[in-house]
Structure formats: C-alpha cells, structure tokens
Q: What sequence folds into this?
C-alpha cells in the first residue's frame, strides 16, 4: 500500500496515458516523443552539473566557504552568491544540491537563499534574452527591482529563521 502512495503520480500518469490512447493514439505517440526529448536533454545537462557539484564538494575546503560566504562574510558573501548564481548553467533544480553543499560547508542562509534566487531569475542567459525580447530599459527595471527584492529577502531570512530552524537546516544538509 505504501508503494502505491509513493508512486501516485506515476500511476495517475499511466492511467491518463491509457485513456488518451483510447481517445486518440497520436497523442500517445506525441507524449512518448516529448518524454524521450526531455530525457535526452536532461542526460546532456544534468551529469556535468553533478560532476561540477561533486568537484566543488571535494576541492573547496569548508574553511574557504565559511570565510567567503559564512555569517561574517558581509557584502563579499552576497557578491559571491550573486556571481555564482548569475554565471551558472542548467535548470534551477540543479542549484539545490549545490546550495545544500554550501550549507554543509558553512555558508550563511541568507547567502544561499540569495544564490538560489539569482540562479532562478537573474542568470545571464535569461537577462540577455529579456533584453533582446523586452528591450534594455524594461529589462533593467525588472532585473534591478528583482535584485533589490532578492537582497532584502535574503537579509530578512537572518531574522525570520530562528536559531533552531537554522540548525535543523544545517543538520538536514549534513545528513543528505
């Protein structure tokens, strides 16, 4: 019974696929084609990202992360979090394992949260795409506003999370 609950999404997807097959088999072929394309694109992107994350975990000492991005890193830690997020590659889901390693190595929660926000919205390819489609002025207004909101939000996390919650996050990062 527990297996059914754990695989609920898969079971629902398979039932929907059978229903769609009954309605029109062309949709089933399209679904399989889309799934195949997604798997191929993930196999191209994800392994190099995880290799780089593994290298970061092994090559960058904990003391360095604490010094550059720890609780007392100040603006330098925020700038480094911005740099890592803005010059990143890959989908946002790839940022979470890196964020976990950063927490494990002693980075401050505000810097890690800022890194995640920048990775998801202010990566250079996204900004360049915005400029070409929306124009420079509008893109700068959007991105400047997001950057200000991200900085304020990241700094507020230091006050919102209690010490116990931060320790729980750190413990979860260490155990994963």
A:
């Amino acid at each position: 019974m527990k297996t059914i609950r754990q695989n609920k999404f898969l079971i629902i997807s398979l039932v929907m696929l059978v229903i769609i097959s009954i309605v029109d088999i062309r949709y089933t072929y399209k679904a399989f084609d889309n799934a195949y394309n997604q798997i191929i694109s993930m196999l191209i992107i994800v392994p190099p990202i995880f290799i780089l994350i593994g290298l970061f975990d092994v090559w960058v000492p904990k003391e360095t992360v604490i010094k550059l991005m720890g609780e007392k890193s100040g603006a330098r830690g925020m700038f480094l979090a911005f740099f890592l997020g803005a010059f990143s590659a890959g989908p946002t889901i790839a940022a979470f394992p890196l964020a976990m390693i950063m927490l494990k190595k002693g980075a401050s929660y505000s810097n890690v949260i800022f890194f995640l926000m920048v990775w998801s919205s202010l990566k250079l390819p996204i900004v360049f795409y915005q400029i070409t489609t929306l124009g420079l002025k509008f893109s700068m207004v959007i991105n400047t506003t997001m950057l200000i909101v991200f900085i304020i939000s990241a700094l507020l996390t230091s006050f919102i999370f209690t010490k116990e919650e931060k320790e729980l996050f750190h413990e979860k990062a260490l155990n994963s």
Q: What stands out?
A: The chain has a mean pLDDT of 88. The two ends are 26 Å apart (CA to CA). The longest helix spans residues 25-59.
